[in-house]
Amino acid sequence: DVMDVESTASRFRYDKRRTEAVVTLASGESVRGFFFTEGGTAHHEGPQRIVDLLNDERGFFPFEIKAVGGVRTVLHNRSHVITVAVFDDEARRDPGYDVAARRQVALLLTNGRRVEGTVRIYRPEGRDRVSDWTRQPEQFRYIESDTATFIVNVAHVVTVTEVPAS
Prior knowledge:
Blueprint: H1 2-11, E1 16-25, E2 30-38, H2 50-56, E3 60-67, E4 70-77, E5 81-86, E6 101-109, E7 114-121, H3 130-134, E8 140-144, E9 149-153, E10 157-162
Antiparallel strand pairs: 1-2, 1-5, 2-3, 3-4, 5-9, 6-7, 6-10, 8-9
C-alpha cells in the first residue's frame, strides 16, 4: 500500500536546518556557507549542532555554498577540514558548559595558523588539565576566541600550549 510506505518514510525523515559557518580546508581555501543540521539529536536536548554532525560520522558531509549562477551543494571530506567558524552560541549548548573547567590555550594548526582561546574540559576535578583535553575521544572540538567560536579538527592540531590566565 502506497500510503503505508509514505507514512513509514515520514516517521524517519527529519527536518533539516541551515546553519551558517565558514569552513577552512587543508587546501588553504576558506568557504562560507551552510551546514544542514537536524532539529533534534539523541546526544542532548535541542537541535543538532555542527560539532555533532562532524563527530557523528566519517567521510563526506554536504555544505551549501553560493556559486556563480546560484546556490549549490558540495561534499567536503571531514578529514580535510581544519576549522569551522560558527556564528551562534552552539558551544554554550553543551551540557555542563557552565561548570566545565576552562583553560586558555594556543593551538598551532597544520596550515600554520595559530588560534588562541578557551577550551572547556568536561572531566572530573583533577582530570581537567589541558593534557586531558587532548585525550578526549571527539575528533572535532570547540575553542572560543575573543572574535569567534571555532570547531577544530584535532588531527590538524600540531601543538597545544596552555596560556597563563591574564
